[in-house]
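Aim 2 progress update. The chain analyzed this quarter is reproduced below.
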Amino acid sequence: MNVNWLKTPALALMSALALSAPVVAETSGTATQKEGTMTKIEFIFGEDRLSATLDDTAAGRDFAAMLPLELTLTDYHGVEKVADLPRKLDTTGAPASYKPETGDITLYAPWGNLAIFYKPFQNSRGLVRLGAFDGDIAPLVRSAPYTVRLEIAD
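Predicted structure tokens:
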């Protein structure tokens, strides 16, 4: 077998990269699976139980660490339900802004409060996505303030 082509530095480098590509792809796939662990939570109020999934982010993990938690949700401008959190969340690595969709669970970092969107809203600076509901959120839309318990799902 003639291996003189390996004596050219550029060809040798390309060859080494091509040979290592499957290993790199396999390694990054494994890392993604480990990082992709998401936390399932439940919002419990009255006879209603709504499930949600928190993102695998610093803020999502820090919020999960607070649970179980009891909060009073109030309406804010006919777009979202808000509640004060007992402490600030870790927002390391969070983008500067976020455009919420219906069912998004977010943190409004400047005020340190939870914001649950039942209608889509504009891109807002300081808004950090924590996760989203897994299904219908209609039971959340009530006019009067109400208490909700948040727990890690079994």
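The longest strand covers residues 69-76. The mean pLDDT is 83. These observations will guide the mutagenesis experiments scheduled for the next reporting period.
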